[in-house]
Amino acid sequence: MNLSLQSGAQSTAWNRLKSLSLVLGLLSLTACQSVPAQMQTGHFAPLPRTLSVSGKGEVSIPATIAKVNLGVEVQGKTATAVQPEVAKRSEAVVKLLKERKVEKLKTAGINLSPTYSFQNNEQRLNGYAGSNIVSFEIATDKVGTLLDDAIKAGATRIDSIDFTATDEAIAAAQKLALGEATEHAKKQADAVFTTLSFKSQEIVGIQINAANTPMPPMPMPVGVPLAQDTKNSVTQVVGGEQQVQSFVTLQIRY
Question: Per the confidence metrics, is the pTM higher than 0.70?
């Protein structure tokens, strides 16, 4: 009988010990889970204060290359009469251009089509119109004389003239524009810091935004024939300038 009572007391003590261990384990787990919340609320350093400012740089460069579209246009009663005349005049024009060593010479368009008139709501065939257009590049200071000589050789129309700078000049201008954009951004940041009595610490971020494509001068209107001038005159062509722009964004810690 005594052995039974002693065994029951030991079992009760053991159960109490197990319950106490379980409670302590739960308390320990709760404490561990609460640590990240405390770190999030009070132990992380705040992000550094930064100012983002953008600057713009712009450089003007001369447009030294003329991109020209010109050619021959002939009208006649029949296609067999028009096409040979187009070919003959085009051959003379292309020969001249090759002699002047123009760059990137290529055919831009060949066309032969009927022409019609309308009378009393009726469409009537008048004849045919044929054309052969070529494109090329030449130095701007030489294009005026070349246009006059092309007209003498047989060209009857100038479709367009665009002006641009060389790739080397554009690349160099973009570097200068980037320098100006950076200085512009720095000056703006200095003005802000001075006004607010802040002190800049360091530049922590730099972004070079896409540079604008240089805008060429306004081209000649399309489809305007160039009339022959007097014998001693030369067609004056002014290439103008291109504007090259670059943009820089700085992120400055203060």
Answer: no
